[in-house]
Amino acid sequence: MTIRCSWAEGDPLNRAYHDAEWGVPQRDPRMLWEMLMLEGFQAGLAWIIILRKREAFRKAFAGFDPAQVAAFGEADVERLMGDAGIVRARAKIEATIRGAQIWLDMAEKGEDFADFCWSFTGGKVLTGEGHGWVASTPLSETISKEMKRRGFKFVGPTIVYAWMQAVGIVNDHAAECFRRAEVARLA
Description:
By secondary structure, the chain is mainly alpha-helical. It has ten helices and two strands. 58% of the residues lie in helices and 2% in strands. A two-stranded parallel ribbon has the order 1-2.
């Protein structure tokens, strides 16, 4: 019997996400930004809702291409507000557009988003204890403060920690989960 993190049991989509993606160290700047934006949309909702809508989000937000999303205007916001395939929350939509603009501004100044994200750990994957549920950490609070300082929204310490787990900045697979050792080898 395969042992997984408890949250990944049940729904086949959750299982597939857990088994193939969650916790794998992500170094692509665009994908790191996409996941941060999706975690922001997840605020107040279950992650499975975002997973079920992920392809619709990608279509609605031009494949999460920061250059295209940064150019979205009010007509795009209204279009997105009418898109039943995504979470229709104006503040989250506007935060995603603003996040794209910040991403581009960083790039124009020569700052790679991936380098920024990984700078907090010196480029190394952190390993969680593998026992129990952690909502935030002092590091997620630090990253959250820096992201907020730069203008990102929906990046509180809990959202940032969930994002850190998702993109493999921290390997937080349960101690008994089969993916813990596999992901550690990818670090």
